[in-house]
Write a structure and sequence with these properties.
Elements (H helix, E strand, L loop, with lengths): L5 E9 L6 H9 L6 E2 L12 E2 L13 H5 L3 H17 L11 E6 L5 H13 L10 H5 L3 H10 L5 E4 L5 H14 L5 E8 L4 H9 L29 E9 H6 L6 E10 L12 H14 L8 E3 L6 H15 L7 E3 L2 H4 L6 H15 L1 E2 L24 E2 L4 E8 L3 E8 L4
Parallel strand pairs: 4-5, 4-6, 9-10, 9-13
Antiparallel strand pairs: 1-7, 1-8, 2-3, 6-7, 8-14, 11-12, 13-14
Helix pairs in contact: 3-6, 7-13, 10-11
Length: 417
């Protein structure tokens, strides 16, 4: 069968360095760090006392107060980012066949704060079960996609992908496949996360996954730096409108780029640690290239998973060298997590958006906070350290890897008319 082409016609973002697409992009190219001391709760006794929280965000500025109270923060973030993307896409709702528009959303954890609040309230009581009637609908990780579809009346395919930090990249790939296989004309996709909570910080601290550089949060996320000591927990959402090419052309939509392909793989190695030789990372990039029908030499850049963990950055760098060979030295590599922190299940969406905006603007956002080369990482690789770089970008790949060994990679390219 002939696969249909899929393009991107709408974008929305809610991140620690900007509460909409323009603010997010400005933060990326100016190298802003979103890290700061935690304000959501008293973190003074935690090993890590900082995170990449949203700034100046009030859900009631975007959502009806009663509706907002029925949603966990992760769902609120999904609604705000998806609304920006849908508005950006410019649909004529009177002509749109809503049976052919779906929602595939990603979240690695879902309503963690809601679960935490309800359990703490129960523990503080006398054992009598007094739970909020919205407890379950607020907590479950599929509800964000449900809220989005209810708001717009989109009746097409609707579900949530959960693959830890690869969740929203898997969501994008699934949405891409549903359109190119003919099951939908357009899909709202992306992901959201709101894990900066007592449980989230405590849990990741217990795993020794987070940076503990409390004296200097803004420089704590140091992908590929010798002194990196873990990731910074972030929060927010990224949303994309994917659309079948002819459908988009027929309605005169603004097209950002084309989705070229998607790859998936498993490390099959360890519940949290990456394969030391980057085997899963290598396979996922090769699978993505194969799906896109492109050669390694066609790729101009990779937005790396690049979390700032000692093992992860090294394994991914090895994988890139294996996949791209000598061409790896001509590419721009970067990790936007150095600025946004790690948005867990939303990471793939916000980083795919960064890749798309690189295509549009001919700029590669920097990997900030680089101070010392790591002798275990090839210094000839261009990680776009510290300063934005100008470059015409035609093909960009975005990697995301999740606990459990889940790997996903999406490739975006300039539209070929």
């Amino acid at each position: 069968m002939v696969l249909r082409r899929v393009v991107v016609t709408g974008l929305g973002a809610l991140t620690p360095i900007g509460n909409n697409i323009q603010e997010y992009w400005n933060g990326l190219i100016t190298g802003v760090s979103g890290a700061a001391p935690i304000t959501y709760f008293d973190a003074s006794k935690f090993k890590t006392q900082f995170a990449c929280e949203l700034k100046n965000f009030n859900a009631e500025d975007f959502l009806d107060r009663k509706e907002a109270r029925k949603m966990d923060r992760y769902a609120q973030y999904a609604m705000v980012a998806s609304d920006e993307a849908v508005v950006d896409a410019g649909f004529n709702f009177e002509k749109l066949d809503k049976d052919r528009v779906g929602v595939i959303w990603g979240s690695g954890i879902g309503g963690l704060e809601t679960f935490q609040i309800e359990m703490l309230n129960f523990a503080a009581g006398d054992g009598t079960p007094k739970f909020n009637p919205f407890f379950i609908p607020k907590m479950i990780s599929d509800i964000a996609g449900g809220h989005i579809s209810i708001k717009y009346g989109f009746r097409g395919p609707n579900f949530t992908t959960v693959s830890a930090c690869a969740s929203s990249t898997n969501a994008i790939i699934d949405a891409f496949n549903y359109i190119r296989l003919g099951h939908a004309d357009a899909m709202i996709t992306g992901g959201s996360e709101a894990a900066v909570t007592i449980a989230g910080m405590g849990g990741f601290n217990a795993m020794h996954a987070l940076s503990t550089r409390n004296d200097d949060p803004k420089t704590a996320s140091r992908p590929m730096d010798k002194d990196r000591d873990g990731f910074i927990l972030g929060e927010g959402a990224g949303a994309l409108v994917l659309e079948e090419y002819e459908h988009a052309i027929a309605r005169g939509a603004n097209i950002y780029c084309e989705i070229g392909g998607g790859g998936m793989s498993a490390d099959a190695y360890h519940i949290t640690a990456p394969h030391p030789d980057g085997l899963g990372a290598k396979n996922v990039m090769l699978n993505c290239l194969r799906d896109a029908g492109l050669q390694a030499t066609d790729v101009d850049g990779v937005n790396m998973h690049g979390t700032s963990t000692p093992l992860g950055d090294m394994a991914e760098s090895k994988a890139i060298l294996h996949v791209f060979g000598e061409h790896a030295y001509t590419m721009n590599l970067n990790s936007t997590k150095s600025m946004t922190g790690h948005l867990l299940g939303a990471a793939g969406a916000v980083e795919t958006i960064s890749s798309i905006l690189s295509l549009k603007h001919g700029l590669v956002p920097p990997t900030i906070n680089h101070f010392t080369d790591d002798e275990n990482i090839d210094a000839k690789l261009n990680f776009t350290f510290n300063k934005v770089q100008k470059r015409e970008m035609n093909v960009v790949m975005s990697n995301t890897f999740g606990f459990g060994g889940h790997n996903a990679c999406v490739l975006v390219k300039k539209l070929e008319i």
